[in-house]
Amino acid sequence: VSIHARRAALKDVLGNLCITYEAKRHTRQAMLEDVLSSMRSAERHGVAHDSLVEGHARRRGNAHTTIRLLARSTV
Fold first, then answer.
1. Alpha-carbon distance 52 to 68, whole Å?
2. Per-domain residue ranges for the chain?
3. Which of 10, 22, 43, 70 would you call most buried, defined as having the most Cβ atoms within 10 angstroms of its Cβ?
4. Could you read off the pLDDT of 20-60 as tens digits, one per residue?
C-alpha cells in the first residue's frame, strides 16, 4: 500500500475518531504527520507499524492508544 493511500486512510480515520491529541493542543495535521513519520521509519527498519507508532507516541507523551488504533487501521 502506498504512503498516499495510507495518508488518505489516516485522514478518514482522523475524521471519524475523537482524537485525544486535540486535548493536548495538537492539531489533527500534527498528529497525521507524526503517524506518517513513524510509519515511514517502520518501513525503513522493517518494524511492525503499530508497535513503532505506539512507542513514538509514548516518547512524545501523547495518547498512544489512539495512535496505535490509527496505525492499525492503515496497514
1. 9
2. 3-25+40-74
3. 70
4. 444 455 556 666 676 677 667 666 665 555 554 555 545 55
Task: Give me the DSSP letters along 1-51.
Answer: --HHHHHHHHHHHHHHS--HHHHTT--HHHHHHHHHHHHHHHHHHT--HHH
The single residue listed with the C-alpha cell 471519524 is 16
Say whether 67 sits in a helix, a strand or coil.
helix
Q: Is the Cα dihedral 69, 33, 10, 47 positive or negative?
A: negative
What number of other Cβ atoms are within 10 A of residue 33's Cβ?
A: 13
Please name the amino acid found at residue 31: M
Maximal CA-CA distance, the chain:
32
Predicted TM-score of the model (pTM)? 0.33
